[in-house]
Amino acid sequence: MSDGVEQETPVRAIVAGHGTFASGIISAVDQITGRGGQFVAFSNTGLGLDDIQGTLAAALDASHARVIFTDLPAGSCTMAVRRMIRDRPGVLLVTGINLSLLLDFAMQDDADPAHAVQAALDRGRASMVVHGA
C-alpha cells in the first residue's frame, strides 16, 4: 500500500569525469531507462586532485553509494578515488566506462554491488565492436 509519499530513488553509484561526461552519460541512462536517479554526477572541472578527493568523499558519504564509475583509467578522478578508497572497504571503482556498462548496472535492481559491477563490466566490454576494414 502506498502512503502517497513518493520515494526517492536510492543512489547506487557516483559517476565522475571530465567536463560534462558524467551528467551526459547519466542523462542518456535516464532517457533510455528512466533510472538516472540511481547516479550522482561529478565533474572535476576546475578542481585539483585534493579537491576532487575531498568532494568525492563528501558525495560518497552523503549518498551511501558503494560504486564509483570514472571516465579514464589514469585520469584525475580515478587517481583521487584510488587514494580515497584505501580506507573505505567495500567501495568499488570502475574506470573507462561506457553507456552499455552503465545501462546494464542501472537495470540490475537487486544485485549486490560487486555482482552488478562485474555483470555490467562484461556487458560494457562486449559492446565495443569494430566494423569494416
Automatic annotation (TrEMBL):
Keywords: Transferase. Gene3D superfamilies: Phosphotransferase system, mannose-type IIA component. GO terms for biological process: phosphoenolpyruvate-dependent sugar phosphotransferase system. It comes from the Bacteria. Residues 10-128 form the PTS EIIA type-4 domain. The keyword Transferase applies. GO terms for cellular component: membrane. This is PTS EIIA type-4 domain-containing protein. It comes from Gemmatimonas phototrophica.
